[in-house]
Amino acid sequence: MRLNHSDRIVKFPIPFSGLPISKVNNPILTQFSTFNVIYNSLPGTRQFLDLLKEATGFDCKVTFLGLSDAPLVSSYVFSTDTIIENFLECGVPATKEEMNEIAEEIDSVLFPEDVDVLSAIRTSNYLGKPIIYRRGDEPIIVKQKFSGRTILFWHRDKPNFFDNSLTHLAGVVTLEISRKLSNPEVIRLVDFENGIWSATYSVPITSISMVKWVWDLEGTSLIGLSNWEEA
């Protein structure tokens, strides 16, 4: 439950392009946005804390934080990264990289269908840059063009239909968006990917520009877009 707002503002990665397809290693594109930090216990964070205690053998005092109007995946990663910092300050004999590895193991237990997008956000945050992420490959740093804030969340059911051609198309669209971030044509690609989301997961069809369906924890979020310079 949200308790109160902080006056702290942070720059943090959000998922921007890429669809969840079971057992498929397609690319995920991230961008950065600015958010207000809030005191908030998010879904999964208390379970994350319990598993981190079990993994490290430490029981440290933590602060539950989140991000206002951010996709759940971004807010969860921010919250759990704060918990990791609390544990390191508490004296856990591990490096930040080792703690991140533990965090990704916990992610796979709590959100097995969303491991790739979680890893993309963790990696982008660690690098401090927007990236193209694909599991097993080196992340590729891309341009920062858009910021986004959540308008609504939609629970994600099993996809209506997916075959090899649609899987390939979804991956190609993400790569094309990453290449054309500074091209006005990118909005047409954003709208095209919104159509793939609607066809695949029955999310509402968007009739306005500068909105984007993005991969979120156990669902998808519709975000309103701004050019980074205007954010």
Write up what this structure looks like:
- A hairpin with a 6-residue loop joins strand 4 and strand 5.
- Mean pLDDT is 91; it is low at 1-5.
- The longest helix is centred in the middle third of the chain and has 19 residues, at 72-90.
- This protein has 231 residues and is α+β, with helices and mostly antiparallel strands.
- The strands form two sheets. Strands 1, 2, 3, 4 and 5 form a five-stranded antiparallel beta sheet that branches. A three-stranded antiparallel beta sheet has the order 6-8-7.
- Helix 1 (45-56) crosses helix 3, helix 3 runs antiparallel to helix 4 (115-127) and helix 5 (164-179) runs antiparallel to helix 6 (186-201).
- The chain has one domain (5-230).
- The protein has helices spanning 45-56, 72-90, 96-110, 115-127, 164-179, 186-201, and strands at residues 5-17, 28-39, 65-67, 131-133, 140-141, 146-155, 211-216, 219-227.
Structural class: alpha+beta
Q: Note the beta-strand portion.
A: 25-35%
Uncertain stretches of 5 or more adjacent residues: 1-5
Number of domains: 1
Kindly report the average pLDDT value.
91
